[in-house]
From TrEMBL:
InterPro entries: Plipid/glycerol_acylTrfase
Any GO molecular function: acyltransferase activity
Keywords: Acyltransferase, Transferase
Name of the molecule in the record: 1-acyl-sn-glycerol-3-phosphate acyltransferase
Domain (Phospholipid/glycerol acyltransferase) ranges: 53-167
Organism, scientific name: Paractinoplanes deccanensis
Database matches in CDD domains: LPLAT_AGPAT-like
Source organism superkingdom: Bacteria
């Protein structure tokens, strides 16, 4: 009886996801077309068309989950993102987050979120993770939590690094929201899955993931087709590329 109830619950959740998620994706695409955003996706072939996978992304803006989800569209995958519980408690975003079957993360009860994400991966779904946990105000890759590695290893699925660059110009921490800004280029780069070598510690694999994300982000930043329009517009560039974003050490403090 219990197994039948679980199957029905899973069917109901999947049905809700299929009903809610595609219209949200369509609305996001329409919004981006209206703003004439210049979105470039590189490496989409690295996302499997079937089976579970963990997508581990950098975090530069409040819109990253939307663009990471777009990066999985060529593979026809809907990504379930792990996001802080407060987003699910909001009266507007909450129903959408639940309808799209994203996974709430309660920092006081993280084990339950980990179990839900692991089961989703074993069921063949794609789970999106931001291993930096919070937005990087330096616009470099911060120190990572090991959860993405542990999820992929526990569920025995690929761990795929990806980065986004450009959405910070629309809405990020500590800066004015400009959701109506037009013609902004956004680069999404997806790398090959990490080799999850047996016997290598989660900490060592997380360090490798950080290196891979940093390499992808550096490539995206250097390929970005626009430069700041003047001295006051250099805030969205990291310090090592001539921007006025805080250095990683200062941003961490």
């Amino acid at each position: 009886m219990h197994a039948a109830q679980e199957k029905f619950r899973e069917f109901r959740y999947r049905l809700a996801m299929e009903l809610v998620y595609p219209p949200v994706v369509a609305a996001a695409k329409a919004w981006f077309r209206a703003l004439d955003l210049k979105i470039q996706v590189d490496g989409a072939e690295h996302i499997p068309r079937t089976g579970g996978a963990v997508l581990a992304s950098n975090h530069v803006s409040y819109l990253d989950f939307i663009f990471c989800g777009l990066g999985a569209q060529p593979a026809k995958r809907l990504v379930r993102f792990m996001a802080k519980k407060s987003v699910f408690d909001h009266k507007v975003s909450g129903p959408l987050m639940r309808g799209m079957r994203h996974i709430p993360v309660d920092r006081d009860a993280g084990a339950a979120s980990f179990r839900e994400a692991t089961q989703a991966l074993k069921d063949g779904e794609v789970v999106g993770v931001f291993p930096e946990a919070t937005i990087s105000e330096s616009f470099t890759v911060k120190e990572l939590k090991s959860g993405a590695v542990r999820l992929a290893r526990t569920a025995k699925v690929p761990l795929i690094p990806m980065v986004v660059w450009g959405p910070q110009r629309l809405w990020t921490k500590g800066h004015k929201r400009e959701l109506g800004k037009r013609h902004v280029p956004v680069i999404i780069k997806i790398g090959e899955a990490l080799e999850m070598t047996k016997g290598v510690s989660p900490e060592a694999l997380t360090a490798t993931l950080k290196e891979r994300l940093s390499g992808l982000l550096d490539a995206a930043q250097r390929a970005y087709p626009e430069k700041p329009s003047g001295p006051d517009d250099r805030w969205w560039l990291p310090a090592h590329l001539g921007g006025t974003a805080p250095l990683p050490e200062a941003a961490a403090v």
